[in-house]
Known about the structure:
It contains five helices and ten strands; from the N terminus they run αββββββββββαααα. By secondary structure, the chain is α+β, with helices and mostly antiparallel strands. The protein folds into two domains: 9-41 and 255-374, no CATH class; 53-251, Neurotransmitter-gated ion-channel ligand-binding domain (Acetylcholine Binding Protein, Chain: A, Distorted Sandwich), CATH 2.70.170. The strands form two sheets. Strands 1, 2, 4, 5, 7 and 8 form a six-stranded mixed sheet that branches. The protein has a four-stranded antiparallel sheet with strand order 3-6-10-9, with no helix packed on it. The longest helix is centred in the N-terminal third of the chain and has 42 residues, at 9-50. The chain is elongated and about 105 Å long.
Amino acid sequence: MKSNFNRPISHYLLSVILLVVLISGFYASFSLTTLVKEISSSVSQNMKNTMDPLAPDPGKTKSENISIPKTSSKVIIGTYLERIEDLDIKQSSWSYEFYLWFKWDATKIDFLGTKDNIHHNELPFSIINGDILKSDKIEEYYDPVKNIGYIQYYVKAKNTQFFDVRLYPIDKHDLIIPIEHKWLDRTKLVFVPDTVDSKVSSRVMINGYDKTQTIKLIEKPHAYKSARGNPKLSSGFKVDFSQYRLSQRIEKGGLTAILKIFLILYIAVIVTFIAPFSNDPSRYTVGALFTTAGANYVLASKLPAINVYSLAEIINSFCIVIIIVMMSLLAILPSVVFKDGKVDDFEKKITRTINITMFGFFVLINTLLVYVALSY
């Protein structure tokens, strides 16, 4: 069929298809890159705020006062992380063993509660969002000359910690040990991190992650907004406790992690682009589609339940869309090109251009997504 301009209708249809592919490709490049950039920025900012002593924790109750109360007594606290027994990102938990010590001026504070009838002989510390599985007292002494009290424990604990996996499989996390005194709030006690002796053992290893060589130690007020039913306190009572945090950052292996997860998926998409050169393209495209579905199932088994898309799911979904679009083009293009029973040079050229453009956007968008995620 010829148009009023003496050109086959197929020429205009193919030009429209190419235009749609170009517009869609540029839009997808911009929108997906912006989305990953926002996710990366949010993850990075949340990690920064969590270990910033002056910034409120993301989504947590803001502290009443950042400054140290004049009535507070300083207690030196230190930790030596000896072993990470287990790290389960999917279950949002990790278990570990560490040495913990405290040093204080015995004339200013009853740290152990020896004069307190309620807390006498009670463990004086708690691990926030964690369970103390075992606690052995290693050493305790009092220096009567300097009035210095000292106690050291060997602790085995298990923490529940939210791991932000929105950048999986190139995610990074701060493993945090958060410690507070059990009954003395921040008006009575403030922790001072022992930055000299607090360390992480070189023997500490985490399967699938690399640990950084530096750790971060901070003291941060932790707010509790509840009277806990105490009739002596008013409704909406709010109190701050001094919280010590040790942070050990762990991270994935960058581009290597991407290739390990997506190599088969990328091959499946490439096979889809090879399909037009075969006698039975549907065999390739259907096989590629099932491969991406299987990859999505594997990803779901590795990640905790979250209500947003992770980087891995974005890449996987994008690859599925590419395969579906190629399947659609393989169905549409032949019917357009062969409508008049012959194929001219323009139709061959524009069909080839459409396929090359699709492949170009596939490479471009995946490269941009990975580059943006690795930049944070």
